Amino acid sequence: MEVIKEDINAALILPSDARWNESLRRLDHDFYHLPEYAVLCSQDGDAKPLAFVAKADDQEIFIPFLLREIPKTLTGGVRFYDLTSCYGYPSPLFSRALDLNFLKQSFEILHGMANDLKIVSGFLRLHPLLMPPLDWIRGLGVLVYHGETVWIDLETNQDIVRTFRKGHRETLRKLSAEKYSVELNNWNQYDQFISIYTDTMKRLNASPSYFFPQNYFGRLRDALGKKLFLCTVISQSGEFASGSLFTKVGGFCQYHLAGTAETHLRMAPGKLIIAHIAHEFQRLGARWLHLGGGVGGKEDSLFKFKAGFSDKRAPFYTLRIVFDAEKMRNFTQNTAGTATNNEFFPPYRFSKAA
User: Which of 19, 23, 275, 330 is most buried, judging by how many CB atoms fall within 10 Å of its CB?
Assistant: First the structure.
């Protein structure tokens, strides 16, 4: 679907469309915005990967998302849809040259497309390090703040470990004394990492969104190729102690998934991973290593662990958009046995957390 309004050319495109990568070449972006990643995320949720692109001269907007059909039990058997972000921070991207009028007109076009396609709502996760002016975003939907995330400045911080919390530095010395060692991109350990990651999520009673099908990890590696990094820690006796997946796209590096063997929890070997990968990404010329925040944006033990590596913070927001208020109310009322949950959007999916 393509629309030309005044000087704005806008379209909904598939990952196979050349315009997807053309937009990314012009815009600062992360791995969450790659067409391969959109396809990967669509495969586990019966969804269609799309992106909305709008351009006028040197101004541009790019919004990747998944198009999902709303359960027909809620819609009376009629096909309606909603939009959601892929896992992570696949935020809307904005050109550096941007004005509020272009932004508003582009979202008006998006609303029109949504109405034509019977799209009821949209849920977008914003990237903490790729944020436009908040006042502009607030005019596009309901902006919800979820908490702070942690990032490490790789560009100006030459002595990274020196900025770590004292307790983290002491742990690194103990790990070194105990002969724990780090390995980078030893993919022979990938199966061990997958197993440890899954065990870690079970131990933490993590929500279903943190669990992935077994074949997800292979597909993730196929999709990202050399943009995906596996960093592992091995004990002196040769045991797999901890592992993490990271990504690097341009200057952006992300701490994606991590797990630690229960028998090595006391030593916190994951700290050795962060120290090692930060230096490696710095050597590769990256600018930022984004560690993320706590579970659900909370300042929990995970957040405190990450906060020990840097005092840099960035806010995490989501944007909730209602394209059809009447259908939103009707479908929410049809959600059997569940009261509206203000923490969940869209509310009509809350009972199935879908």
Answer: 23
